[in-house]
From TrEMBL:
Protein name in the entry: Cytochrome b5-like heme/steroid binding domain
Locations listed in the record: Endoplasmic reticulum membrane
Cytochrome b5 heme-binding domain segment(s): 6-82
Mode of membrane association: Single-pass membrane protein
Superkingdom per UniProt: Eukaryota
Taxonomic source organism: Macleaya cordata (Five-seeded plume-poppy)
Keywords for this protein: Electron transport, Endoplasmic reticulum, Heme, Iron, Membrane, Metal-binding, Transmembrane, Transmembrane helix, Transport
Heme among keywords: yes
Ranges that cross the membrane: 112-132
GO molecular function annotations of the record: heme binding; metal ion binding
PROSITE patterns: CYTOCHROME_B5_1, CYTOCHROME_B5_2
SUPFAM superfamilies assigned: Cytochrome b5-like heme/steroid binding domain
A GO CC term attached to the entry: endoplasmic reticulum membrane
Family the entry assigns: Belongs to the cytochrome b5 family.
Length: 135
């Protein structure tokens, strides 16, 4: 209908192509069939084979591939990846915030208030009752 016949793969579909006779890669949200390129890859076939079955964007970027390397990729493009099927951990790992003592201090204050507030209300009620009785 739309005329846009973009193919979208899931991670498990791409993961099936994980051997020297059939090797697909996920880089920058796109899927590449690099089977024919394995022997010609200047970085060797092993790195490509070890980068299958996951989002290889970081591995690819870490090498600092040249613009001519990036231009070559079009030749192997077979479709896009449904990023919903790629675990978030493999996309980005947000830095973990360490827990400071401050958290424990505010926890303690909350517990103290939970104890003191009802006590204060009770005291107020008794006080009011005492006051209204005596007048
Ligand atoms: C379709 C995908 C890829 C293409 C077209 C490609 C192409 C190339 C090209 C042309 C080079 C030569 C240097 C340059 O021009 O930057 C290269 C080097 C290299 N590539 Fe790739 N590459 C791809 C994917 C990957 C992936 C996923 C990895 C890592 C898992 C990788 C690892 C390397 C390494 C380590 C080198 C350095 C080799 C050296 O300097 O001795 N490549 N690649």
């Amino acid at each position: 209908m739309g005329g846009d016949d973009k193919v979208i793969f899931t991670l498990s579909q791409v993961s099936e192509h994980n051997n020297p006779k059939d090797c697909w890669l996920i880089i920058g949200g796109k899927v590449y069939d690099v089977t024919k390129f394995l022997e010609d890859h200047p970085g060797g076939d092993e790195v490509l084979l070890s980068a299958t079955g996951k989002d290889a964007t970081d591995d690819f970027e870490d090498v600092g591939h040249s613009t001519s390397a990036r231009a070559m990729m079009d030749e192997y493009y077979v479709g896009d990846i449904d990023m919903e099927t790629v675990p978030a951990k493999q996309k980005y790992t947000p830095p973990k915030q360490p827990h400071y003592n401050q958290d424990k201090t505010s926890d303690f204050i909350i517990k103290l208030l939970q104890f003191l507030v009802p006590l204060a209300i009770l005291g107020l009620a008794v006080g009011i009752r005492f006051y209204t009785k005596s007048t």
